[in-house]
Specification:
Dihydrofolate Reductase, subunit A; nine-stranded mixed beta sheet; about 250 residues; alpha/beta; about 25% strand
């Protein structure tokens, strides 16, 4: 498999995918936006009934059913890039590959404002697409050169008011690289930032029948100043295994 920025976007479900037919409108939207100047952004994550994505920060937990895991890998296979924050890398050490279905691996993208990614992270040994790490001017120059020598692509982006990678700049950079279909998986800070900045085109949220009292919630802080609630414009609910999948587009502000 060639490690290029091009990616095949399929618009017809493959055999054995019939239970995921509710995702077909998403795949059609991705294909329709291929000529856009910004990537199509799909936000996908799993949460408990009380809105938690983990029991506590930096401690991974399995929430989804096996069927939902298959759905996640199907979604990965339909996007050319898969973005996570550095805290997800440090906590989970993910591979971010497609393993539970047929399809290409997306390009791993990591938001890492100070370049804390370990040199031994699994992403640094990705089978065919080494990570694209987006950082800020706060990153030590020697770390940039070291990670580049190990095969990663490191790009310095403008920082936002909190010192994190400015997401609009990051999206423009990804589009310039030909990465026009972006899947965002987490963690909490990344989910919160994409939603607050209204940068999500489509949501696929898996709700697991569990309660995590006092768990980590991606939208746990109030908006200051208060913002209008985000609403779904077109949406659906689908049972999947023991879970419930809520999916759809977000209404324009």
């Amino acid at each position: 498999m060639r490690a290029t920025s091009t990616h095949r976007v399929m618009t017809q479900p493959s055999p054995g995918e019939h239970s995921l037919g509710f995702l077909q409108p998403l795949f059609e939207r991705i294909a329709a936006r291929a000529a856009s100047s910004l990537p199509f952004v799909t936000l996908s994550y799993a949460q408990s009934i009380d809105g938690s994505i983990a029991a506590q920060p930096s401690v991974p937990i399995t929430l989804s059913s096996n069927e939902a895991f298959v759905m996640t890998h199907r979604l990965r296979s339909r996007h050319c890039a898969l973005l996570v924050g550095i805290n997800t890398v440090l906590a989970d050490d993910p591979r971010l590959t497609v393993r539970l279905c047929d399809g290409d691996n997306p390009r791993p993208v990591v938001l890492d404002s100070r370049l804390r990614i370990p040199e031994h992270a699994k992403l640094m040994a990705h089978p065919d697409r080494r990570p694209l790490i987006l950082t800020t001017p706060a990153a030590p120059p020697q770390r940039i050169e070291r990670l580049r020598a190990l095969g990663a692509t490191v790009e310095v982006m403008p920082a936002d008011e909190r010192g994190r990678v400015a997401l609009p700049s990051a999206l423009r950079h990804l589009a310039a690289r030909g990465l026009k279909a972006l899947m965002v998986e987490g963690g909490a800070t990344v989910i919160d930032s994409f939603l607050r900045q209204r940068l999500v085109d489509y949501c696929v949220i898996t709700v697991a029948p569990r309660l995590l009292f006092g768990g980590l919630k991606p939208m746990g802080e109030p908006c200051v100043p208060a913002a209008a609630p985000l609403a779904f414009a077109e949406y659906g609910y689908e049972p999947l295994g023991r879970d419930l999948v809520i999916h759809g587009t977000l209404a324009a502000s």
